[in-house]
Design goal:
Helix content is 37%, strand content 22%. With 292 residues, the chain is an alpha/beta fold. Zinc ion binds next to loops.
């Protein structure tokens, strides 16, 4: 998630004004949705497709289904990159009719164990700034992934190989990346953010750099990387974000060792004081647990 909301048609049904999919690599299409600037990605094979991330509400998901149908007549399987609402609350609509939903086992557990708490948390987070989005979130039937991944799963989608990988914890406990080798493309979820700073509310800021380093091993000079939010990027952008996350992680370790207040550590940190403060608090909690 990002901390800002766009001006798109949240929760107001099929307005027909939102953007369609854009092909960013051979047979791989990205739709950048104005509300939260979140990406959904469609991989199209021969007679079958795969849809990564399903947006926030039933209304948004119906729009997304129509956008998919404008690209391909084929049936699709669903993948969720993680458990945040803007990536999986459209599952009930987009997986209707028994379509498989893939996700990391931690993502499936988080969604299965406390759907009501998650709905309430995000409703309360958004009700003041985007009441339409909040109302839509409150009505969602949460559908967890029914096909889970621990480290790797290799799918064949209409003849194309698509590899789902958990490279370690970072943005959440259950981040999954989707690798499409024949297109030299990787869908990163919110492990990589282009349109705003990374989001740390459920993050593991001390582990995130290692996870991005592992991602870097999958990327070549011409690789296309689809971030969770914002414009498509490349390997250099991922390297830059890795460097900033590494600097932040060391700042957190040093601050913890020195007994520095979280606010002081966050001031002047990468990604700005607000995002960094959340990261420092998460990192401090992790270090306190590790030393107990
Ligand atoms: Zn997220």
């Amino acid at each position: 998630m990002t901390g800002s909301t766009g001006s798109g048609p949240a929760g107001c049904g099929s307005s027909g004004h939102s953007a369609g999919f854009v092909e960013v690599a051979a047979g791989v299409h990205v739709r950048r949705y104005p509300v939260l600037d979140v990406n959904s990605t469609l991989v199209v094979g021969e007679g079958e497709a795969l849809l990564v991330d399903t947006l926030s509400t039933d209304a948004q998901a119906h729009e997304l289904a129509a956008a998919v149908r404008a690209v391909t007549p084929y049936p699709w399987v669903v993948v969720n990159t993680h458990h945040h609402f803007d990536h999986c609350f459209g599952n009930a609509v987009l997986a209707a009719g028994g379509r498989p939903v893939w996700g990391h086992e931690a993502t499936a557990a988080l969604l299965a164990e406390r759907p009501e708490a998650l709905r309430r948390r995000w409703y309360e987070e958004w009700v003041a700034t985007d009441p339409e989005l909040a109302a839509g979130l409150a009505e969602v039937r949460v559908v967890p992934p029914d096909h889970t991944v621990r480290t790797t799963a290799t799918l064949t989608v209409g003849g194309r190989t698509v590899i789902l990988r958990h490279l370690g914890r970072g943005h959440t406990a259950g981040d999954l990346v989707v690798h499409v080798p024949d297109a030299d493309l990787l869908i990163a979820g919110d492990l990589v953010e282009q349109s705003g700073p990374p989001s740390f509310e459920d993050a593991f800021p001390l582990e995130w750099p290692e996870t991005l380093a592992a991602m870097g091993h999958l990327l070549g000079p011409d690789s296309v990387v689809v971030p969770g939010h914002g414009a498509v990027v490349g390997r250099n952008f991922v390297r830059q974000q890795h460097a900033e996350l590494t600097a932040l992680a060391w700042r957190i370790r040093d601050g913890h060792a020195d007994g520095a207040p979280a606010e002081a550590v966050a001031a002047g940190a990468p990604f700005g004081p607000q995002a960094a403060l959340t990261a420092v608090r998460r990192g401090y909690a992790e270090l306190a647990g590790a030393t107990r």
